């Protein structure tokens, strides 16, 4: 078939539009990777990730070939044992995924269930103070509903209760401020296809010394997901199995650019695009059903005639624009507009214009 959707304006949350320089690197052959040169590139990638997250020098980074979920599963399997008792914040699709993973891997857990769009408050955590929990799992930004959780609140709880803190920051990295050391995050996950704006296929696990220690002591029933092997190989800039070599080379360029620009400036760029969109969307019949927003995404509930999924379809077929649809229960009531990747204020104007056009035609 002739694939035709390369030129759509993409407001989804991943994969997102890439910088021209990064696309150019992707047009090369994929080189052999058991080489000194590739090892050096991998070591540089690790160093850049630690610098961007201001992770302690003794921390480590694993580049796992798989989507973000592979890192969620690997992190959970390697960090916890049957002797742990963990809290999982579940406010949407990605929180639900951690719950399923705990079930599959027999990790004892208690779910902190939040309504769609609800933010995390002190009252949600109070019942679990001094109850012997050893771990806390949270998606910093629940991307399915667009709720950014109160990380200082979670951090304080974990410090008081001596909980190992595992944070899925897949959609927050480079979009929202993350204080890995200050918040006492033991293990943090991100992935290549969100704000890193690379092809999908690499998940990144960043660990502090305590997490590395835990992983090294833990026996894991898995070959591919035994992180000890990645830690050993990583010491010489290698991976146990063939990684997504091309994406890691593109990542090197992206990480060096980000290090040069500075993470604060990058977050500011994303925030400006998000704020611009939120200002302009006010003129149209939508509600933003979240009281704690990430810069990465704006969730929108349509208040007019057309349901969320129909809006997604019309924008795609009639305007060549992708917004991010929701699935399941939220399919007709919610869609999302992403602000990450190679997207600009001018792009926001094109989306707003398309929605205004739909409104003028009395469709919206
Ligand atoms: C995108 C995302 C994931 C990973 O999804 P994959 O499709 O497996 O890459 C996990 N958690 C959050 C919060 C995400 O936004």
Entry summary:
By secondary structure, the protein is an alpha/beta fold.
Walk me through the structure.
The structure is a single chain. This protein has 364 residues and is α/β, with parallel strands linked by helices. It has twelve helices and 15 strands. It has two domains: 9-15 and 263-360, Aspartate Aminotransferase, domain 1, CATH 3.90.1150.10; 22-261, Aspartate Aminotransferase, domain 2, CATH 3.40.640.10. It is 39% helix and 17% strand. The strands form four sheets. A seven-stranded mixed sheet has the order 2-10-9-8-5-3-4, sandwiched between helices. Helix 4 (93-104) links the parallel strand 3 and strand 4. The protein is globular. Pyridoxal-5'-phosphate is lined by residues 14, 67-69, 94, 139, 143, 168, 170-171, 191, 194.
Beta-strand proportion: 15-25%
Largest sheet: 7 strands, mixed
CATH class of the largest domain: Alpha Beta
The strand order across the widest sheet is: 2-10-9-8-5-3-4
First and last CA, distance: 33 Å
Bound molecules: pyridoxal-5'-phosphate
Tally of individual helices: 12
The helix-strand sequence is EHHEHEHEHEEEHEEEHHHHEEHEEEH
Overall tally of structural domains = 2
Radius of gyration: 21 Å
**Which fold name is given in CATH as the topology of the largest domain?**
Aspartate Aminotransferase, domain 2
Domain Aminotransferase class V: 34-223
Cofactor: pyridoxal 5'-phosphate
Modified residues (N6-(pyridoxal phosphate)lysine): 194
Binding site for substrate: 336
């Amino acid at each position: 078939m002739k694939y035709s959707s390369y030129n759509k304006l993409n407001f989804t949350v991943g994969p997102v539009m890439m910088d021209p320089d990064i696309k150019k690197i992707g047009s090369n052959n994929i080189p052999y990777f058991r080489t000194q040169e590739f090892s050096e590139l991998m070591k540089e990638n690790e160093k850049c990730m630690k610098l961007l997250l201001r992770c302690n020098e003794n921390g480590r980074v694993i580049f796992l070939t798989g989507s973000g979920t592979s890192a969620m599963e690997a992190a959970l399997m390697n960090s916890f044992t049957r002797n742990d008792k963990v809290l999982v914040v579940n406010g949407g699709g990605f929180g639900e995924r951690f719950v399923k993973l705990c079930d599959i891997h027999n990790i004892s857990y208690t779910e902190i269930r939040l309504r769609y769009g609800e933010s995390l408050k002190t009252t949600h955590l109070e019942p679990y103070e001094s109850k012997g929990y050893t771990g806390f799992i949270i998606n910093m930004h629940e991307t399915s509903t667009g709720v950014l959780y109160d990380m200082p609140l979670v951090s304080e709880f974990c410090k008081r209760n001596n909980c190992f803190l595992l944070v899925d920051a897949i959609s927050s990295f480079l979009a929202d401020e993350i204080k890995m050391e200050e918040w006492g995050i033991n293990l943090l996950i991100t992935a290549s296809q969100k704000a890193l704006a690379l092809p999908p296929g690499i998940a990144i696990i960043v660990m502090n010394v305590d997490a590395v220690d835990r992983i090294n002591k833990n026996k894991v029933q898995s070959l591919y997901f035994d992180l000890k092997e990645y830690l050993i190989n990583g010491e010489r800039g290698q991976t146990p199995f063939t990684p997504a070599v091309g994406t890691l080379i593109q990542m090197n360029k992206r990480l060096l650019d980000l290090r040069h620009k500075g993470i604060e400036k990058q977050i500011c760029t994303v925030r400006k695009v998000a704020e611009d969109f939120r200002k302009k969307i006010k003129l149209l019949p939508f509600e933003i059903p979240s009281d704690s927003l990430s810069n990465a995404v704006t969730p929108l509930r349509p208040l007019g005639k057309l349901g969320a999924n129909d809006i997604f379809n019309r924008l795609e077929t009639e305007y060549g624009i992708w917004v991010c649809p929701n699935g399941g229960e939220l399919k007709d009531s919610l869609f999302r507009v992403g602000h990450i990747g190679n997207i600009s204020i001018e792009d926001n104007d094109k989306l707003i214009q398309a929605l205004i056009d739909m409104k003028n035609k009395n469709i919206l």
